[in-house]
Amino acid sequence: MSNSELRAADFVSRGSSVRALLEDLRLNRLPNAVLMCGASGVGKRTLADYLARALLCVSEGERPCGRCGACKRVLSGTHPDLLAPALTPRDKTIKIDHIRELLEQLSRHSLEGGRRVILLKNAERMTAQAQNSLLKSLEEAREGDWFLLTADQESAILPTIRSRCLTVRIPPFEEKRVRSILIAEGIGDAAAERAAELCEGSLTRARELLADEEDERLRRMVYDTFLALQSAADAPAAENRLKDMKDHFDRLLSVLEREIRLISRARAGLCEMPAEASSVWQQAPLFGVGRALDHVLQAQRLRASNVNWQAVMNGLMQNIAEEVSTWRP
Ligand SMILES: [Zn+2]
């Protein structure tokens, strides 16, 4: 299910304080400042996004409707009344300047009485100065403005800020809920079950576990195909093993690149040789490994210019097989 399809009913299993929050929303009495806390991956930001859409939606019926212009603009991040600090990926903290800029934007904003939402995700990243600079605005929030904060660690939020917010604590997901969400996202039953068991109620962690598992699967595949080739005669069987990899081929290439680089570093004595590397690769001449890597990089360039994946795979198989066949003493 995508976030745009979320309904209030999807949150009712998230604990009594979330249910009370949704009831406040429904009855049009949501406090002007809400702080959503809970461990990483329990759905705080999803809930904050949902509230933002519900507050800005202009539908006459159930809000958010997911269809009106306001809903769509919130989803695409272009709604003029949805404000958030302008952070770059390099910003590890939310600084006082970020908050000042945000508040400046808020004050300049035309006051037509419309609703506005100020989203402060990862509010625990605000420096103490940044939090202090926000305080007055929280205290004096005008009617129709909502400050929605999310934080992994409640204790990282100053008591003065907390005392001005309705604090909503979101519990970890139940295991069976994680499993059903993952299955609804198209993950196989067994993998969903395993990830749900190990994620400690964090959907984010469950997705990371699945990504790790997928990486491991691709890694094994790389060693069983490209890195198992001894001569061109082995290529057809290897190609056959990859025949269903259309959607994963580019990731497979990057895993292959990574593993060849690892082998190269291991040959140069800079790290441990991957245990899966065959004796051929373990004893490969360093320049030969370098040439194999060049072939992979060339394949990636071809993919980047949209050359058919199968053609790229076949060419790469041939090139690697030929390279490896020259290594024999
Ligand atoms: Zn709407």
Overall morphology: elongated
CATH architecture descriptor text of the largest domain: 3-Layer(aba) Sandwich
Distance linking N and C termini = 56 Å
Report mean pLDDT, rounded to a whole number.
91
Order of helices and strands: HEHHEHEHEHEHHHHHHHH
Describe this structure in words.
This protein is an alpha/beta fold and 329 residues long. It folds into three domains: 3-171, P-loop containing nucleotide triphosphate hydrolases (Rossmann fold), CATH 3.40.50; 179-211, no CATH class; 225-325, no CATH class. It is built from 14 helices and five strands. Strands 2-3-4-1-5 form a five-stranded parallel beta sheet, sandwiched between helices. Strand 2 (82-83), helix 4 and strand 3 (116-120) form a beta-alpha-beta unit. Helix 13 (286-304) packs antiparallel against helix 14 (309-325). The protein is elongated, with a radius of gyration of 26 Å. The mean pLDDT is 91. The protein binds zinc ion. Zinc ion binds next to helix 3. Zinc ion (ZN) is lined by residues 57, 59, 64-65, 67-68, 70-71.
Question: What descriptors fit this protein?
Answer:
alpha/beta; 3 domains; 5-stranded parallel beta sheet; 5 strands; 51% helix; binds zinc ion
Entry summary:
The chain has helices at 16-26, 44-56, 69-76, 96-108, 128-139, 159-162, 175-184, 189-198, 203-224, 235-241, 249-267, 279-282, 286-304, 309-325, and strands at 33-37, 82-83, 116-120, 145-151, 166-169. By secondary structure, the protein is of the alpha/beta class. A five-stranded parallel beta sheet has the order 2-3-4-1-5, sandwiched between helices.
